[in-house]
Amino acid sequence: MKTKESVKNKLSGKVINEIKVKMPSLSVNEGMARSVVAAFCARLDPSAAEIADIKCAVSEAVTNCIVHAYKDTIGVIYINVKLCENRLVRVEIKDRGCGIEDVKTARQPLFTTDAANERSGMGFTVMESFCDAVRVRSAAGKGTTVTLFKFFEER
Ligand SMILES: Nc1ncnc2c1ncn2[C@@H]1O[C@H](COP(=O)(O)OP(=O)(O)O)[C@@H](O)[C@H]1O
Ligand SMILES: [Mg+2]
After folding, report:
1. How far is the CA of 64 from the centre of ligand 1 (A)?
2. Which domain covers residue 125, as residue numbers?
3. In a mutational test of the pocket of ligand 1, which residue from 64, 70, 113 has the highest number of ligand atoms less than 8 Å from its CB?
4. I need a labelling partner for 143 at 20 to 30 A (CA). Which of 24, 32, 69, 95 fits?
5. How many domains does the structure of the chain reveal?
6. Is residue 155 a part of any domain in this protein?
7. What is the CATH number of the domain that holds 44?
8. What would the pLDDT profile of 71-119 be if each residue is shown by its tens digit?
């Protein structure tokens, strides 16, 4: 059983492999980003469910860069994927967009600043439910970094 504490203690392990990609915040690149992360994870021989989970979480984070961070503009999305000890995959998704005023509120289920476009406000909740931990660092006017942590089961 993974408790929050036992997960937290393992989040900073030695890095075994790493890739960095950056792409403009075009909506076509949402699919690109999740495929790149899935390809990186493939050597762990993941289950179909694990791959679906990480793709879904990456998708939410990258979509947020496209639709919120760079709302009326096109900016750069930086993605850094690391394989760490204990089969931990860390996916850092960074933008230099508008930033988040209040991260705690933004992370609440159903909270959205874009109800006009029928956003569900469930992006962060989805990331949290499909990963073992999610870290959000943001500064208004400067940008946001979301880090997804996922342990892949021993095969
Ligand atoms: N990268 C980001 N840059 C700026 N604001 C963001 C970013 N990611 C999330 N947000 C803010 O957090 C809110 C909640 O995000 P989320 O849970 O994905 O719901 P939704 O995208 O449906 O609004 C968004 O409405 C937005 O205000
Ligand atoms: Mg969202």
Report:
1. 5
2. 4-149
3. 64
4. 32
5. 1
6. no
7. 3.30.565.10
8. 999 999 999 999 999 999 999 999 999 999 999 999 999 999 999 988 9
